[in-house]
Recover the amino acids of this structure.
């Protein structure tokens, strides 16, 4: 599973997710309010927080579909960064 920091960042971009609601690996982020602007903001915050850069091929909306896919993508980006 992901770390607490990841979940906190993600929750700030999900305005339709009720406070205290569970966030599962397959939660559809768009269903809970992650729009294109929020995706860009989330990407910038993830890069800043985890001190990584997402390569252009990682900038696919499919990588921002749900927490499980996004965390796996971030984990791979972090591994490549060393």
């Amino acid at each position: 599973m992901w770390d607490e920091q990841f979940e906190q960042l993600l929750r700030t971009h999900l305005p339709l997710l009720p406070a205290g609601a569970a966030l599962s690996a397959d939660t559809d982020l768009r269903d809970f309010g992650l729009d294109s602007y929020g995706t860009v903001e989330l990407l910038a915050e993830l890069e800043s927080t985890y001190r990584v850069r997402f390569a252009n091929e990682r900038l696919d909306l499919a990588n921002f579909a749900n927490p499980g896919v996004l965390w796996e993508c971030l984990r791979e980006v972090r591994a490549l960064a060393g």
Notes: The mean pLDDT is 96. The first helix runs from residue 4 to 12. The two ends are 20 Å apart (CA to CA). The helical segments are 4-12, 36-50, 67-81.
